[in-house]
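REQUEST FORM: STRUCTURE PREDICTION
Request ID: SP-0412
Submitted by: Lab K.M.
Chain count: 1
Length (residues): 493
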Amino acid sequence: MITSLNPASHTLSNHTVQSARAGLQSGAFSAVELTTAYLERIHGLNPRLNAFITVADEAALAQARAADQRIARGDTSPLLGIPLGLKDVLSTSGLRTTAGSRILENYIPVWDATVVARLRAAGAVFVGKCNTDEFAMGSTTENSGYGVTRNPHDESRVPGGSSGGPAAAVAADLCVAAIGTDTGGSVRTPAAFCGITGLKNSYGRVSRYGVLAYGSSLDSVGVLARNAMDAALVNGIIAGHDPSDATCVDIPVPNYAGEIETSTNLRGLKVGVPREYFVDGLQREVRDGIQTGIKQLEALGARIVEVSLPNTSLALSVYYMIAPAEVSSNLSRFDGVRYGLRVSGHDLVDMVCNTRTQGFGPEAKRRIMLGTYALSAGYYDAYYTRAQKVRTLIKRDFERAFEQVDVMVSPITPTTAFKIGEKADDPITMYLTDVFTVSMNLAGTCGLSVPCGKDDAGLPIGMQVMGPWMGESTVLKVAQAFQQAVGYGSYIV
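STATUS: Completed
RESULT:
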């Protein structure tokens, strides 16, 4: 477990969005002082944790100075002057964006992703770009071209992935909150492993414009934060229609923070428990932690109902057919011709081959090959088309379940955080880590991870709260009431 570098500095950096906002507005400290404290902590701990690929000292301090000027003029925007981390798949103007891949090692965009632009307009301070599995492909952040990120609770263990960098940064108090993406559990798994709150939005709730694509029909931008209220405050800024993204729906954005502010009980709420998610092989402490969490929800007034998602057993196979197919298409643009890495060759074909061979890591190559095979002539209908049909069945399972209940709860992963390298040589075992998360991405629904205890080794356990499409307010309400009742918002180390 990490230790504080400088007690005084850690006191200044040890904030939620709410407490940092209050301190900035009251004049207890300036945005420059707050940002400086976080940058000092990053430089002290990041060499050990590797949560950030790029630290943006000069740009962050410039944003902080601008925030102080806005505060002096009476601006009360909820994220004004708040230090945030950004997963390194979000395009940031003038700031290196690598997607965790050596093929984009020196790529500096000239434009912002919509999410980044909205945060920038709100006055947030970007302290850096956080580590990720290459192009967000992984469950542990071991597949990054820039080294493994370590779990702040136990540096010998993985932080989860692919948003392991943002999760570790929040858990180690290197930023107040962070933005991640979730394609098959990539916000929820690291949130669970690192003991923080991780919100996965419904497909279409937040713009994907400027997000380096992994699986275009699966990707969802999310928030990693210390508690549900912080996640609600950040989500209120990034959510909403974007004409630049044809899949981003034009539906009004609720006042998430306002709706959950007084959420202290769950009377009248029906909570489903899917029987297929409590299977053999579930770690004892994880099972016990989730069961304890369910009892707490019941004590808050919720009615517990057993439900069924009968096609759950097919979800992993479907996901690992559809996602690699979309990878094969999306990563074809990285050829050394237009941007990114270029490795010379005897001719154009040789140059493209050399560039992709040296630029992509093993997991990216594995998924490109799987996807190319699935989309090839003679196999398209047998594999890809059939997977899409089963995806529809999985989506209908969720629709039927949400006709009976308001939310569902389950484990997020079968175990708590495991050792670095423990599953790295066995892709199939690694993919099984996603068994409880991929269904939601296939269905396009929302959900979050909320801390619900620790195992015998002191490692955090996360409880998954699953909501219907565009049901972010409800899952945040459940998490807020739960966290108010149990007396903690996260396991910050």
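NOTES: The chain has 17 helices and eleven strands.
Reviewed by: T.R.
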